């Protein structure tokens, strides 16, 4: 294992070096392993290689151990089989050259690259053991090492097999994302007939039919039909989302109940799913402060190990204990392999990136995720983040003597043909109260509103400009309500029949129900919650009061948001900025942590370190939980791995030999592998972390 986690392309792609046997493993193959990065398929291949070599090595090791003079003396038995003296040398050489090939080739690669690490330590240990064993068989040495050499390599292979298996499991998110795309798509021809084509035959502009239960093959827009779409793979949201004509759909999502026709506008590597796969891959490969610390410690440990091994050999040889010198030198080299130390951080990174992706959290920067646990102020953009970015009717009042049902029927009818966002809000509110009437003679009154004939009467809907143009004033029974709405910053629309004001409606950007809980939970953790918006002060204050935030920054232009972030930082606050990733880009980049929210269909945002694929602000709490837990796991692993090496090296060097306590190389290999497995299992415990937002109060 090299001790630096270089994430350059040349190191991330597996380079196979043919070795003895039918597999291709070696420095390049292990280079992907070294950094504990790369793709899940690569780890799966490596796991299979180490598994196969382990079992063959174990098969060859059994007769070597069983016919060893030392082992027979220990257990008091005698095996007298023909050619017994050749079993150790012949089978031991096969184990050394074939089963030990990944370590030998990896050690040579590290030496050539001048990046000494774990593979070089293992190669040195088994080579010293092999040389001593061969010397024994040639009559030049007084103690055999064949059984220890074979056992050492077998145990090392077992440890590497389990490590590759763990890393492969950690990278399952990429394979799972790749499996979300169907192999084929139903493309609609120009004559309306449907043909089944391979996915790579789709191009932008094609229309595809998505049947109930089928996956959307590419990003696009619904042009016919409506359906409930399961978007859990993008947002982590378990409930299906209603989609209709004009709505965008994303490759890999599932139409749960109806057929829809989608005009494709992104295929292959341009789809959101492909972007998410790239982000997960980058997150698994990106560095962090804890990883950098582990890298430096592991690099230092190589030189400590070599120095300790040399000192051990010289010291024991100087007192005439050459057998012990060789034995303990091999033990020092084995026990000091920084296997667990090198795995401590990268495996946590891989598991946390996979876990995050499955919950709609896309980590682009490990540093950003680490910083999230120390953030003490969360700055939310208002529109589209804490609010839905679309107006709803929040209140209405009728003039004296007017029928409320009739007023809503007329208002919905007049606004039915308008495309204005406020008009759509009126229509939604009207249809929720019952059927709307039919309108004729629709006319748009530029800058004032719209007008139409409903059931023989002329109605108009518009704002204060409409009343001013017609010389109308509000009935007294409307004044108090309208004044209160204006103080809140609500938009006010009036329904006018002929020359009389019939009703008034208040419209506001709807606050997300999840936002209230997100703010409350964040404040419960001791963090300040701040709203920043370009909206008028009264609008921003109303939203801030409704949510219970600590501070409101209103009437801030998009280009000035980063300056506000800088001012907060100047106050000594560590700031996380949560925005939509478009006009908030400078602020996202300026903040200590930038989180782009609601970016499930725009995963290429460069300014944010973390992307929240859903529009649920409660996901910010999930990021904090993940940050805290993954960092704690990293520190636990680093403490265990470093502490193990510090304690084990003196023991392996024979520091307690005076008390009759020495460490055989094979036992050292067991302890080293056990340490690695402890680190791997501890990292896997991250999978138990529940990142789902807490249920809404009252839900």
Automatic annotation (TrEMBL):
Membrane topology according to the record: Multi-pass membrane protein
SUPFAM superfamilies: Calcium ATPase, transduction domain A, Calcium ATPase, transmembrane domain M, HAD-like
InterPro entries per record: ATPase_P-typ_cyto_dom_N (IPR023299), ATPase_P-typ_P_site (IPR018303), ATPase_P-typ_TM_dom_sf (IPR023298), ATPase_P-typ_transduc_dom_A_sf (IPR008250), ATPase_P-type_domA (IPR059000), HAD-like_sf (IPR036412), HAD_sf (IPR023214), P-typ_ATPase_IB (IPR027256)
Region annotated Disordered, chain positions: 1-43
Residue ranges annotated for the P-type ATPase A domain, each copy included: 180-280
MF GO annotations: ATP binding; ATP hydrolysis activity; copper ion binding; P-type divalent copper transporter activity
GO biological process: copper ion homeostasis
Compositional bias annotation for Basic and acidic residues: 1-19, 29-43
This enzyme's EC code(s): 3.6.3.3, 3.6.3.4, 3.6.3.5
Record-level GO cellular component terms: plasma membrane
Transmembrane segment boundaries: 54-74, 86-106, 118-139, 298-319, 325-348
Subcellular location: Cell membrane
One Pfam match: Hydrolase
Keyword list, A-Z: ATP-binding, Cell membrane, Copper, Copper transport, Hydrolase, Ion transport, Membrane, Metal-binding, Nucleotide-binding, Translocase, Transmembrane, Transmembrane helix, Transport
Domain of life: Bacteria
Homology family: Belongs to the cation transport ATPase (P-type) (TC 3.A.3) family. Type IB subfamily.
UniProt protein name: Lead, cadmium, zinc and mercury transporting ATPase Copper-translocating P-type ATPase
Protein species of origin: uncultured Acidimicrobiales bacterium
Highest classification ranks of the organism: Bacteria, Bacillati, Actinomycetota, Acidimicrobiia, Acidimicrobiales
């Amino acid at each position: 294992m090299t001790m630096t986690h270089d994430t350059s392309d040349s190191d991330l792609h597996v380079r196979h070096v043919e070795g003895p046997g039918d597999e291709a493993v070696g420095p390049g193959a292990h280079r992907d392993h070294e950094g504990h990065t790369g793709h899940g398929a690569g780890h799966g291949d490596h796991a299979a290689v180490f598994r196969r070599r382990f079992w063959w090595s174990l098969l060859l090791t059994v007769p070597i151990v069983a016919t060893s003079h030392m082992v027979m003396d220990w257990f008091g038995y005698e095996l007298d089989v023909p050619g017994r003296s050749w079993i150790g040398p012949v089978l031991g050489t096969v184990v050394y050259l074939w089963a030990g090939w990944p370590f030998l080739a990896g050690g040579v690669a590290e030496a050539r690259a001048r990046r000494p690490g774990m593979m070089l330590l293992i190669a040195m240990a088994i080579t010293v053991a092999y040389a001593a064993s061969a010397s024994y068989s040639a009559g030049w040495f007084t103690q055999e090492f064949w059984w220890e050499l074979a056992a050492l390599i077998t145990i090392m292979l077992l440890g590497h097999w389990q490590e590759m298996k763990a890393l492969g499991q950690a990278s399952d998110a990429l394979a799972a994302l790749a499996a979300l795309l169907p192999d084929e798509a139903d493309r609609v021809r120009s004559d309306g007939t449907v043909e089944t084509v391979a996915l790579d035959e789709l191009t932008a502009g094609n229309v595809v039919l998505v049947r109930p239960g089928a996956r959307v093959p590419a990003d696009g827009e619904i042009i016919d039909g409506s359906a409930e779409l399961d978007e859990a793979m993008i947002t982590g949201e378990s409930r299906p989302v209603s989609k209709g004509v004009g709505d965008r759909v994303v490759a890999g999502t599932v139409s749960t109940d109806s057929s829809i026709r989608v005009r494709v506008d992104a295929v292959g590597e341009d789809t959101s799913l492909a972007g998410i796969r790239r982000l997960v891959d980058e997150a698994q490969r990106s560095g962090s402060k804890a990883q950098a610390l582990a890298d430096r410690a592991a690099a230092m440990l190589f030189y400590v190990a070599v120095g300790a091994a040399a000192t051990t050999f010289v010291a024991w040889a100087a007192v005439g204990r050459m057998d012990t010198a060789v034995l303990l030198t091999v033990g020092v080299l084995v026990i000091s392999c920084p296997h667990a130390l090198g795995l401590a951080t990268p495996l946590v990174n891989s598991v946390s990136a996979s876990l995050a992706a499955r919950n709609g959290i896309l980590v682009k920067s490990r540093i950003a995720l680490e910083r999230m646990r120390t953030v003490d102020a969360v700055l939310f953009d208002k529109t589209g983040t804490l609010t839905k970015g679309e107006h709803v009717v929040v209140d209405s009042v009728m003039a004296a003597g007017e029928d409320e049902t009739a007023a809503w029927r007329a208002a919905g009818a007049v606004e039915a043909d308008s495309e204005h966002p406020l008009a759509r809000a009126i229509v939604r509110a009207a249809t929720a109260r019952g059927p709307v009437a039919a309108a004729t003679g629709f006319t748009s009154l530029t800058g004032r509103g719209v007008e139409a004939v409903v059931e023989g009467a002329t109605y108009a809907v518009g704002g204060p400009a409409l009343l001013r143009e017609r010389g109308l004033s509000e009935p007294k029974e409307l004044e108090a309500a309208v004044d209160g709405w204006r103080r809140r910053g609500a938009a006010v629309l009036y329904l006018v029949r002929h020359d009389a004001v019939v009703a008034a409606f208040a419209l506001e950007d709807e606050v997300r129900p999840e936002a209230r809980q997100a703010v409350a939970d964040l404040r419960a953790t001791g963090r300040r919650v701040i709203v920043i918006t370009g909206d008028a002060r009264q609008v921003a204050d109303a939203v801030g009061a409704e949510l219970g935030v600590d501070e409101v920054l209103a009437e801030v232009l998009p280009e000035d948001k980063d300056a506000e972030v800088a001012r907060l930082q100047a106050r000594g606050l560590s700031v996380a900025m949560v925005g939509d990733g478009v006009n908030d880009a400078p602020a996202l980049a300026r903040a200590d942590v930038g989180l782009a929210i609601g970016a499930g269909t725009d995963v290429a945002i460069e300014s944010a370190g973390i992307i929240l694929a859903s529009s649920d602000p409660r996901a910010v709490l999930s990021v904090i939980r993940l940050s805290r837990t993954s960092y704690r796991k990293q520190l636990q692993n680093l403490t265990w791995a470093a502490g193990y090496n510090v304690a084990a090296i003196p023991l392996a060097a024979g520091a307690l030999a005076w008390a009759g306590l020495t460490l055989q190389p094979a036992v050292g290999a067991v302890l080293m592998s056990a340490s690695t497995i402890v680190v791997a299992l501890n990292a896997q415990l991250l999978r138990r972390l529940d990142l789902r937002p807490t249920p809404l109060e009252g839900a």
